[in-house]
Amino acid sequence: MTEKILLKGNELLVEAAIEAGCRFYAGYPITPQNEVPEMMSWRMPQAGGVFIQAESEIAAINMIFGASAAGARCMTSSSSPGISLKQEGISYIAAAELPCVIVNMQRGGPGLGNIRAAQGDYFQAVKGGGHGDYHLIVLVPATLGELYDLTMHAFDYADYYRNPVMILGDGILGQMAEPVEKRPYKPILNLPPKEFVLDGCKSRPPRVIKTLYLHPADSLVRHNLHLQEKYAQIQRELCLYEEYETDDAEVVVSAYGITGRVAKGAVKAARKEGLKAGLIRPLCVWPFPAQPYQRAAQKARHFLVVEMSHGQFIEDVKLAMDCKRPTSFLGKGGGWYPMEEEILEQIRRLAGTKRKPAAKKIGKR
Amino acid sequence: MNWESVSGSSAQRRWDECAHGRPPAVATGIKRVLPDRIVFTYQGDGDLAAIGTAETIHAANRGENITIIFVNNAIYGMTGGQMAPTTMIGQWSTTTPDGRGRFGEGGPIRVCEMLSALGGVCYLERVSVSSPKDVMKAKKAIKKAFENQIAGKGFSLVEVLSMCPTDWKLSPLEALDFVNDKMKAAFPLGVFKDRQS
Question: Per DSSP, which regions of A157-197 are E strands?
Answer without folding.
Answer: 164-170, 177-182
